[in-house]
# Entry
Amino acid sequence: MLSGKRLVSALALIVLGFGTTISVGASPKGSHTMYVTFSRPVSLPGVTLRSGTYIFEAPDPAYDHDLVRVLSQDRTTVFFTAFTQPVERPQGMSRDQTISFGEPSREGTLPVLVWWPSNSVGHQFIYPQR
# Structure
């Protein structure tokens, strides 16, 4: 018979092993990655991006449905990582539209409101209330 401490240790190892097995599993969908090029400065919550090409990705859509990461084209710099709100693509919106913008800021940058991957659900960025 196991002592109290050994029983607790054994149960902790079983739980840890179960949790590790679940988190290490590969997603059948993989990551969703899109290269987006801007011809002028744009902004995301807390960051301004200069004109150029960036990677927008949902690292693991199967588990982190609303997590979005924005990286440099060569993947050396992460500019933005945050949770977003899911939003349905409006009827009549072209599937070719990948970004929805808001009104320009005083500095002239366009805030990115929604990233529209190829499916019908977009990622709406959460800006602080002013």
User: Anything to note?
Assistant: Residues 4-30 have pLDDT under 50 and may be disordered.
